[in-house]
Amino acid sequence: MPTRIATARWHGTLTEGSGTVRTGQGGYEGNYSFKSRFEQGEGTNPEELIGAAHAGCFSMALSKVLADAGFPPTAIETTATVHLDRGEGGFSITRIELDTTGTVPGIDDATFQKSADGAKANCPVSRALAGTQISLTARLA
Length: 141
Known about the structure:
Oligomer: single chain
Number of helices: 4
Structural class: alpha+beta
Number of strands: 6
Order of helices and strands: EEEHHEEHHE
CATH topology of the largest domain: GMP Synthetase, Chain A, domain 3
Shape: elongated
CATH class of the largest domain: Alpha Beta
Low-confidence stretches: none
Strand order of the largest sheet: 1-2-3
Largest sheet: 3 strands, antiparallel
Number of domains: 2
């Protein structure tokens, strides 16, 4: 299996500095800063990138589970809401809410829900984030 690489470069202090993140194969490059992470500044942040990775991984996993069950989807759209909260030990990602909508011809809701739960439990990013509370809302389009 391939190994994936991403890089980050930061210049300056935490609150006044800024940086750039880049995926190894050049599919994404973006700026980030204290303001984009902890306030409402322009750019991305690590939590958004984790959310994008989780939404993407989950959507792919759900697509496979559904196709393996005989219900190849037309589309899966997932939003991951990542919560960064301050606790006693500092900032932590405390929970992630996955919200997915599937366009899946011929499937009933119970089968879709079971498939979505299986994808949530087994996608590699969900497994990597096992110490984080992950909730799922799944519905058919």
